[in-house]
Amino acid sequence: MLSSMSIYAIDVIFRVIVNQQKSRINDVLYYIHKDISQALPAKQLATVAAYSEQHFHRVFKEVVGESVHDYVRRARLEFAANQLMFDGRASILEVAIKCGFVSVSSFSRAFKSVFGVSPGAWRKPEHHELNAQQAMQNPYLKDAEIAQHYKQLASRAVPDANLIELPARHVAYVRHQGYDRSIKLAWQTLLAWAKQEQRSYAQQFALHHSNPAWVELSQCRYVACIAIDKPLQKRGLVNSLTIPGGLHGVFKLQGQYGELLPQLSHILERWLPSSGFKMQSTPAYVHYKKNHFLQEDERFELDFFLPLSI
Length: 310
What we know:
310 residues, alpha+beta, Arc Repressor Mutant, subunit A, Multidrug-efflux Transporter 1 Regulator Bmrr, Chain A, nine-stranded antiparallel sheet, 11 helices, 9 strands
């Protein structure tokens, strides 16, 4: 029979192993999203995680909830959907190759299996006009506040952008899946860690990996971040990454909970196609002046950074 001390020791060891697994898989997720257009073979991703390939597949699914193949495929198709809509100059073949597909036919099959239409049909303006109307009744848009703000933005002018070359930023982070109020938990976890480590959390950022216009809110990927001066040596539930620098369009936004996602979609759907720029494959992110997940009145003030290329 195990003593209480033995049970405690086993629990500590188990939690250490789990945190180590999450940390290693976080390294892999960072590697994937650093540039979703790069080659991402499982063998290379296993090397990033410092696991054998067989063990890596099992741990990735345990931590993320889906296989690494499915995750990379879904992330690439979400990126492809953005590219098809916002970069009319690129051919479907060019988008397919940039997203890791070897042919238009294989890309088209995969795209239609996720979005229900072919890449060519996805590009047609009438598809997105219809899609916007249907989004109001979409069962995953259960948040009435967000749905209402999507409607209100339809006739609003697109905000102005400043074009800025930004440096890379080192950040500590906690990942979260789902664009809703549950994001507050990620921020509470990150700030509790910062207080324990006696680190400043004044500079708050968030990576937005997903476009909520066509990715279910429950599947959208969000990363809560605070600025640090160099990568972390001791990692676990909180890890570190580098947000890539480069040319960005910067938009100053403000409002209250429920208004941000429609504003981001408004920029992507209205400003980007007419700007003459392409959206880079690195993630867009925000810099909070006021973080609506931490404010009692749920108001935000922030800069939205959209990575661009000519």
